[in-house]
Amino acid sequence: MKCFLSKITVLGMVFAILSCVTSSALKFTPGTYQGTAPGYNGDITMEVTVDAGRILSIRTVSQNDTPEGSGLAYERIPQAIIDGQTLAVDGVSGATFSSDGIIAAVTAALEKSGVDINALQTKGKAATGPVKRSLVAEKADVVVIGAGGAGLAAGISASQNGAKVIILEKMPRAGGNTIISGAAYNAVDPERQKPQGIEDSTDLHFTQTYEGGDKVGDPVLVRTLVEGSLPALHWMESMGMEFTPDVFTVLGGLWPRAHRPVKPLGTGYIETDLNYIKLHSDQITILYDTKAAELIVKDGRVTGVKASGPDKDYEFTASKGVVIATGGFGANKELRQKYNTQWPDLTNAGTTNHPGATGDGLVMAEAAGANFVGMEYVQLLPMGDPKTGSLSGNIEQAVEDRFFVNKDGNRFVDEGARRDVMTLALFQQRDAFMWVICDKHSYPTPQVKNNFNESIEELIQQGRAFGADTIEELAGKIG
């Protein structure tokens, strides 16, 4: 028994590798320096202040990255560089481009101080020592895995029905795909549609959704969606969510019933949820940087979750249920290839998903015996950035106000068609590439912003969009 316990103790230990560059090995010319490097949405400029032997402070001078996706990188990375006196720091999950840009900009600034950059980029001698990870057992009525739009809504709804809730999020922030989405919300809404002269009904919404999915979807679930969408919108509004008064047709939406949030991207949804949770913190707890690893199954029922945080492991017991709200697998190339049956090879395709959308919940559910349905229906959009896959940088707004042309300058598809129809048509074009054309109707001034809070002026300055006064001039600029 003693031998067995000692093995368990050893298994419960990990060796943490701690490193830093000792300040005595560094020699700076005291002063304040600036450096610039490419970020996710343009250049990043960082300002670094040093004395003779240490990095004293790091400040962001300018950047165009979205705070929703990259904000934590601008907080964590400069602090990590200062704490460790090293450039050999880890990036922030979900903000790879911004992380790399911040480190590169700080490096460029420090080069001006005369310091040995190689010494700063090399981690110091590792000091190893055992660090014991504690195991924490916690109980709740409901445990939700994932703090995106679905997970937060599930947690709030459970709380409003009297449950004590714990929400687990593997990323360092909430939001998931929702916070970086275009955020259009489809719902039949006579109050907004009738003043615009739009006739609509839940039956039409049902028909377009069901037939738009080639009648593969479960009719009961489709009916639940179309009948529940407006009450759910009103539920969000009751908590402070704001939408603009007019509706529009979102890409692939097939009818003008899309609601646009007042705040950019999906920030309005997530901020509304988090504000509610903050006011009800006695009922709902969110644990960030906490990755669910395994569903606990007893007597054929899921009763809890095993998870790991930065410095401890958890075993959560849920008396009334576990909600898996971990999103899809768009950022997992292996799972994309495993389930894809309808598209060409997706190995090198970009994704509009955030980096955490790797299908973890699916893997856990499968291990617990879950039955999967419809995994082969992978949605593709024809609007991703050619370099990053992101929807940001996109100048399209309502379906009615733009058209697509290929590299030969020809229209090739109905821009109001289904998303799969448009994507298949795009695959057939030269280099699978297209231009989105808008006019002054969509952008009457250079300051008008797209759905991602980027002005057309900024996009043109960054070389991500082109502007011209005539068709001929525009054709020349885009070749």
Keywords:
single chain; 479 residues; alpha+beta; six-stranded mixed β-sheet; three-stranded antiparallel β-sheet; 14 helices; 16 strands; disordered N terminus
Helix/strand layout:
Elements (H helix, E strand, L loop, with lengths): L1 H10 L1 E6 L12 E8 L4 E8 L4 E8 L4 H18 L11 H16 L5 H5 L5 E6 L1 E12 L3 H12 L4 E4 L16 E2 L3 H4 L8 H11 L6 H20 L4 E6 L9 E4 L5 H13 L4 E4 L3 E8 L2 E8 L3 E13 L8 H7 L20 H8 L35 E3 L13 H9 L7 E3 L18 H6 L9 H8 L1
Parallel strand pairs: 6-7, 6-14, 7-11
Antiparallel strand pairs: 1-5, 2-3, 3-4, 8-10, 9-10, 12-13, 13-14, 15-16
Helix pairs in contact: 2-3, 5-9, 7-8
Describe this structure in words.
It is built from 14 helices and 16 strands. It has 479 residues and is of the alpha+beta class. Strands 11-7-6-14-13-12 form a six-stranded mixed beta sheet, sandwiched between helices. A three-stranded antiparallel beta sheet has the order 2-3-4.
Query: Mind summarizing the main beta sheet?
Result: 6 strands, mixed
Widest beta sheet: strand line-up: 11-7-6-14-13-12
Alpha-carbon distance between the termini? 76 Å
**Helix and strand pattern:** HEEEEHHHEEHEEHHHEEHEEEEHHEHEHH
| Overall helicity | 25-40%
Mean pLDDT metric: 87
Determine Rg (CA atoms, Å). Answer: 25 Å
**What's the tally of helices?**
14
- Per the principal axes of the C-alpha atoms, what is the gross shape? globular
Unreliable spans are 1-24
